[in-house]
Structures are given as structure tokens and as C-alpha cells.
Specification:
- The chain is globular and about 65 Å long.
- The chain contains two helices and 13 strands; from the N terminus they run E-E-E-E-E-E-E-E-H-E-E-E-E-E-H.
- The strands form three sheets. Strands 3, 4, 5, 8, 9, 10, 11, 12 and 13 form a nine-stranded antiparallel sheet that branches.
- By secondary structure, the protein is mainly beta.
């Protein structure tokens, strides 16, 4: 398996490497210069998004969308350029946060994908949590994250003759979200298993 512990090297070494032309870099240290810690790549499946219709909060928990193939979290602030005698200056606009995703369509009217479709059709308030599984809190199954409320502004289903049917969605947040502040976002072991699924067919592997 490919080792994803990627290190950023700043050229520093520890130990005596004088005269060593064998290519041995065992004494080389890699660190994130902003924190002093070794830099490690984060896999996409370690960033998890959970959703819940606000109307379901009394009886339901936030849930992970099964068979998600891609997520994107974007922050934008469209500004205006103002001409001055000394050159253009920027007037920052309102910050907007959007979270998009794509997943395989599952059978059944009660799936989370169908609930999000319903929320999009009826302009229902939706809750969203972003959790980083590489950054656990002290409590079990608690992870660093951010909480959002907002609306589904787009829900699109695509299907063709050769691939599985998919749907994509766009969640537009109200405001910029609320960091967990150390309390952590709960992501159960079952939810983590769903988030790490890689879709596979029923045929024998390697057939």
C-alpha cells in the first residue's frame, strides 16, 4: 500500500551525514514550519460530512451519506474593485460558505439522499457538520469540526447506461459556521465505517 505519510523537508539534518553518498536520508527531519510537527497528508475520506433536516433534530441524529465519492468545501467573498489615484483597492464582499457532494443513489424513499432532496424542494432548513477524523478530541468518537445551518440550493440526479446512478447536492450555509470549540463532533464507529466505504461490485475481485 502506498505510504501516505508525506513529509515536507526543509533541508535540515540530524546526525553526521558528512561523506555519506549512499543516498541514506535516515537523519533527515521533516516538519511543518508553522507548527514544528511532522507534516502528514490527510486522505479525503478522513474529512466527513453529516447532515440532518432541522425538523428531525428531536428524533434523529446527524448522518453520513453512504457511498459518497466526492466532497468540496468552498469559501468565497466576491469583492468590488475601486479605482483610486494610487491604483485599485479592493472592497471585500460578504463571505459565503458552500459544501457540495456527490454520492451513489441508494434504493428506498427514506434514505438521507431523499431527505436532502425533500429539503431542497421545500426550502427546509438543514444542519451540517464537518468532522476531521485525524483530529480526535478527548471523548470517544468526538472529533474536531464545525457546525452549520443552511439550505440545499441544488440537488441533481444523473444516470447513464454504463455507470451507477449518482446524485449531487449543494449546501449553502447561513453565516460561516460555528467551530466545535473543543467539544467535538460525534462520529460513531458505524458512521466512520460508512464514510470509508469504497463502492465495489458483486463480481469476484480480479475476475
Amino acid at each position: 500500500m502506498l505510504d501516505m505519510n508525506l513529509h515536507l523537508f526543509d533541508g535540515g539534518t540530524t546526525g553526521d551525514t558528512s561523506g555519506d553518498t549512499s543516498g541514506n536520508t535516515s537523519g533527515t527531519t521533516g516538519a511543518d514550519t508553522s507548527t514544528g510537527n511532522a507534516a502528514e497528508a490527510v486522505q479525503g475520506k478522513q474529512i466527513v460530512y453529516l447532515f440532518r433536516r432541522y425538523e428531525d433534530r428531536a428524533t434523529g441524529t446527524g448522518a453520513v451519506i453512504a457511498f459518497t465519492t466526492e466532497n468540496e468545501h468552498s469559501i468565497s467573498a466576491d469583492g468590488d474593485s475601486i479605482a483610486t489615484k494610487d491604483g485599485a483597492i479592493q472592497k471585500p464582499g460578504i463571505v459565503t460558505v458552500e459544501i457540495t457532494g456527490t454520492a451513489i443513489v441508494l434504493k428506498g424513499d427514506g434514505t438521507l439522499g431523499e431527505k436532502l432532496r425533500d429539503a431542497c424542494l421545500k426550502n427546509k432548513l438543514v444542519e451540517c457538520w464537518e468532522a476531521d477524523l485525524t483530529n480526535p478530541r478527548q471523548d470517544t468518537n468526538k472529533y474536531a469540526g464545525t457546525y452549520y445551518q443552511g439550505y440545499l440550493t441544488e440537488w441533481t440526479k444523473t444516470s447513464n447506461a454504463e455507470d451507477y446512478a449518482e446524485y449531487s447536492y449543494t449546501f449553502a450555509a447561513n453565516g460561516t459556521g460555528a467551530p466545535d470549540g473543543g467539544a467535538g463532533v460525534t462520529v460513531t464507529a458505524d458512521q466512520q465505517a460508512i464514510a470509508s466505504y469504497v463502492y465495489a461490485d458483486t463480481t469476484a475481485v480480479g475476475a
